Amino acid sequence: MGTAGDRVILAIDLGGTQLRAALVDPSGQIIAREATRTDAAGGPDAVITQMGHLSQRLMAASPTSKISCAGISSPGPLDTHEGRTFNLATLPGYDGFPIVKRAREMLGVPVILEHDAHAAAYGEWKQGAGRGFDDFIYLTISTGLGGGAIVNGKLLRGTGGMAAHVGHMTVHPDGPLCGCGNRGCWEMFASGTSLRARARHLAKSKSQIIFGRSADHIETSDIFDAARAGEQFALELVDEEAQWLGLGITNLIHLFNPARFVMGGGVSINLDLLLPGIIKYIELYAMEPFRNISIVQAELGDNAGIMGISFLAAESSLK
Question: Between 96 and 91, whose confidence is greater?
Fold first, then answer.
């Protein structure tokens, strides 16, 4: 397990469903990890307490370690400079909550806060599919749609640390209302949730069971399973998903001119099915000099945010 006094980083990944934490050494090796269901109903005070319990369990698993600093990755929007959360869609009661101050008081070490997609992008850059690329975009496509950008070899944060909220680009001004309050956000068309909603709506309109499930029970995974089996209805849904992804990616290509896109999140598991369509629509929408783009699946899976926030926390502590 190491020698007495080994310095480690406490990496915390706050999600609406799960709260995960790990001890990571300076080289990026995970020493110990713990997880629990997020006490969303208990509010931010309860979650801070959960973070403390997880850190205690981690230290019990690695008694020779000494936490030098900590980082929290969280869904946004956030003010990473002030260390505060805003009104988080998946976690009620966090508007204006000083999460960094509270965590620092509990842990007794320096703490930073970073958007979860930014942390995942950084993790993929350091140890995953973004290695060797100083300009790339990370996209996470699952319940929602988020992202992070590495530009000129640096994580793009923006004023307040809220850059690259790519899921809230408007792609259809008369589109459905998003949880952010805007209409027609990319997330409302290209996320896994939106793909599932389209499938259920179309299944209901056809008044039949599709993929072996009634309309109200269709899940995103069923769509891809059916597409792999050659079901035409599912193939059309996959092509529509690829079109929406291709449209948004084209916008990002024109904005950032990256060398690579790294795709994470649950939907990315099926990138092999989506990629031909994504490339087709990029070639249709993008200006010719921008079309030669690398699009690959993320390598770190659920560890991307943990790895990214650990590196970011360690680098911040050295400043």
Answer: 96
